[in-house]
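Q: Hi! New to this. If I give you a protein sequence and the SMILES for S-adenosylmethionine, can you show me the bound structure?
A: Yes, paste them in.
Q: Okay, here:
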Amino acid sequence: MDPQVGKNEHYFEGNRILLITRKQIFCGDGLNRGVAVLVTDTTSGCPSLPLNFIEPGTAVMQNLPSIVCGRVLDPKPGEVILDMCAAPGNKTTHLAALMNNMGIIIALDRSASRILKLQELCKELSVTNVLSFVCNSVKSVNMQMKIPLDGQCDPQYFETGPPFSPCCFDRILLDAPCSGLGQRPKLDHINMKHIASLPPLQKKLFETAVKLLKAGGILVYSTCTVVVEENEGIVRWALDRFPCLELVPAEPRLSYFADSEDLFNNTLSASEWKCVLKFVPSVSESFEENACERDTIGFFIARFKKLM
Ligand SMILES: C[S@@+](CC[C@H](N)C(=O)[O-])C[C@H]1O[C@@H](n2cnc3c(N)ncnc32)[C@H](O)[C@@H]1O
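A: Thanks. Here is the predicted structure of the protein with S-adenosylmethionine bound:
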């Protein structure tokens, strides 16, 4: 079993009994504690979990595609890993577990409050190989710097934080800021201007990742959205722009991923779309038997190898 526990988002849909009202929570005397909404049954059929289901410090709840993401990066003990948009650290801590706490993970995020959460999570889970920094990852490379040969896997070299010299990471996870439209519906939050601003930011982060990656290194790009411009569009752009990159199969390939060519909007060739993993929420199937095993949030994962 993965060190972390996956759960799909349909857990939240179903019948519930309201035990404490919103007004009582926010305008009350502060004495209303405990369960506010009792879930009696869910559309997925998944049972609701008791509050103390997970002993603190032993595991983290994550959706299935997020767990697959760590497996696709496939970090090895002793390697130097960069997690470019790391907070609150769900994937970072998974990577640390996969590395048995050996090697170095540099975790960056531009949100100071979220980096604090990442640090708390690392402490709670006894993660010891993560160095975290508040940083705009677009600026995490300095092309003038050179990594000393003996600094290749030396925590001291990385302790001072970004910017780093080019070509100093074995593997990089770019779990990009995205529109999040693969998550549970949050239609009231959709802002077209914000969505349009994301691909340019994703491209800048990607470009920095390519510079920071060693020759022979692995770069995993992921989002929790279903927007083509943020997924296949970024892969197309990256393959056209960086001849040093090869799209390689994202594995493990689970039966959950959407396996139909038309889902990829002709942005990728047939051989390219076979390499990426696209998870699609299959709402129409959610009442069928075992639906909760196949259904996931919308998620996209692509794996690249830097050839030179
Ligand atoms: C999808 S979330 C990351 C989730 C995280 N990987 C996890 O599994 O817990 C995207 C993150 O990107 C961060 N972010 C957005 N723009 C950034 C930038 N320019 N540099 C670094 N982090 C950024 C956000 O603060 C947010 O925490």
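A: The radius of gyration is 20 Å. Let me know if you'd like me to explain how to read the tokens.
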